[in-house]
Task: inverse folding
């Protein structure tokens, strides 16, 4: 009986520790999100076209890719085209 009590107490302790770790993780993610949203109001400069943007879509794109949305779209198109040409050459 005493062994079952110790096991249930240790299980409860593990559950409490897991909940605390999850709460810490969630709170740290919230601080990351709030810092990103506050930085999105700043202006950012695209490393490709060297234009400065203040709109949130381009600012976020520059934060993630160092490119504005237009430059990133052009980059993705050229990469996809290279991939298709490579596939075409392999098949012929």
Result:
């Amino acid at each position: 009986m005493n062994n079952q009590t110790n096991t249930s107490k240790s299980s409860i302790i593990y559950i409490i520790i897991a909940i605390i770790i999850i709460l810490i993780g969630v709170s740290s993610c919230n601080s990351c999100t709030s810092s990103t949203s506050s930085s999105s109001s700043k202006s950012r400069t695209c490393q490709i076209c060297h234009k400065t943007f203040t709109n949130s879509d381009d600012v976020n794109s520059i934060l993630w890719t160092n490119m504005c949305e237009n430059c990133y779209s052009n980059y993705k198109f050229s990469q996809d085209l290279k991939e298709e040409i490579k596939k075409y050459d392999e098949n012929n």
